[in-house]
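Page 42, continued from yesterday. The earlier attempt failed because a stray header line got pasted into the input along with the sequence. Redoing it now with the clean sequence only.
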Amino acid sequence: MMICLQQLLIRRHAVVLGLLAGLLLLTSANALAGSCEIKVNPNNHFITHNLSESYCELCGYGYITVVITNPYRRSQSLPGAVMTDLVFVEDLLSSGLSYEPGAPLPVTYQINNGQILAGSSPNISAGGSVLTFSSAQIPAFAELDADRNNNQVNSITIRFAVSRTSSPESLVSADLHIEGSLEFTTDSGCGDSPQTEIVLLPLHEPLPVINKTGWNYDAGQRQNSASDPVYGNNNDDVVWRIEIANNGLAGLQDLRFDDLMEPGSLDISYVCA
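This time it went through. C-alpha cells are written below.
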C-alpha cells in the first residue's frame, strides 16, 4: 500500500513539474512576442526622410537627412527589442545624384538629437547611385535600444551630402524620387526587417523674377512715377528700368537677359547698372 502511495505522489509531482515547465515556456514565448510589439504612434517609423531638411541643389550640393528609430514598446512587462547590426542603404535611383565628399561635413549623425558627430563616407555601388551605411560608417548603427518612455523612441539621425556632377542642369527635369532601405536584426527575433521608404527629394533652384517699368523723361515723369506701359510721342526720351530678383532657394549665376524691341523704333542712348 505504501509503494502505491509513493508512486501516486511521484506521478502528481511529475504532473505539477510538467505544468510548471509548460507555464514557463508559455511565459517565455509571450515575453519574446511582446518584445516585438510596436508603439501605437503614427510618427513611429523605422525610416523617416526629413524632407524639411533634405534637398538637392541645382549646380550645387545638397543634403539628405534620415531618421532611424527603434519603435518597439518597452515597459515593465515588455522588454522591448534591441535592434543590432543596422545597415541603411540610400538608392538615388535615376536622379543622377551621387555622394558629394567635397561638401562641408559630408556625413554626420546624431543620437537622440544630441551632439553632431562625424561619420565616414558610405560604401558606393551601382555607378555611384547606391550609398550604404553600416556601423563602419555610423558607429551608433551597432545597436539601437528601445526607449523606456512610452511616448518617445530612441533614434539615430544621419545626414549626408549629394550632388549631380554629370549634366548638373538636367537636375531640373530629373526624377528626384529616392528610396531608403533598412536591414537589422533584433535580440527577440522580430520579423520587421527590411524596411523601405520612397520619397520625392525637394529641389533648390533659382527662380528669377523680372520687373520692367519706365517713365517719360520729356513729359516730366521721374522714377517715382514709373509704370508699365509708358506713353509718349516721337523723339521723347524714355527711361526703362529693369529689376531682376531671385525668389528661389539657390543662388543665381550666369544670368542672360534678352530685352526684345522692334528694330528702328528707338535709339539707345546709354545702359547702366
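Notes: The first strand starts at residue 47 and ends at 49.
Reminder to self: strip header lines before submitting.
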